[in-house]
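Q: Here's a chain of 300 amino acids. Please give me its 3D structure as tokens.
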Amino acid sequence: MSSPRTSAPARRANDLRHLTPEQLRRRRMRERQRRRRRCRRRILLVLFVIAMLAAAWGITLAIEHWTGAPSSQSQSAPAPTAPPASQSAPPSSRPQSESTDVPASADPLLLLANKDNPLPAGYAPDLAYLEGGSYQMQSEAAAAFDRMKNAANATGLHLMACSTYRSVERQTELFNAEIQKWMGQGMDEAAAREQAATVVMVPGCSEHNTGLAVDVGSITNQRVEEDFENEPEFAWLQEHAAEYGFILRYPADKVEVTGVTYEPWHYRYVGVENAQKIKESGLCLEEYLAQSHTEKREDP
């Protein structure tokens, strides 16, 4: 007759009774080491998963940064068709411009693009890549930005372009995506279009469509938000941007004139001479163009 089977814990306890104290100590040490190795493997696995998720998130942000692609929420449904570039922006909660009838300038670097002054049909700037080959601007503006960036970075700063030229087609995509975002929050199309125009310029009315505008950031701040004014790069631009032909396009004290909220990151190339005159005058581009027109008209 076979003896009854002994359970694993009982067998293990029986084995331990036959071990010397030294053997017990070594066995327990080996068990602790095995537990530590299992624990380390679990920790490493968790860290690996976290690293992979962070890498995927970083790649997504990088793709959006370099391509300017709208979020998946904005692309989740077909967007309504944007109005033609020749139409001005719909009424909105944005401050209304006090200078809606600004005469055009003969200087192409003083080209005005806003909700009341859409770009001419068929406008196509002569584009060139910035150093690094990621962004394009009008060729003269691109060369000037590279000089400005290199001069700033030579002082230990980290000036960089975050957004530059956008085609009217690309602007249409962004505008439609913004409309879709607000419709997704319950607005009807008309209300969503009006709200979108307070955030994204109507296609053909954006400075980015001219090739002369650049959203500037730093290596530590690429969010194109108002807190960029706290960065040392912003202080440098306030002091030196005009030397390279750039002006702060939407100052905080000119919101009623430009119709655009304060954007400390948005700089516009107008040429060195124009930039220095605008800086010295304390005027925004709309005011400067209106004043120049008045002076020419009054000049005998």
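Q: Can you summarize the key feature?
A: The longest helix spans residues 21-67.
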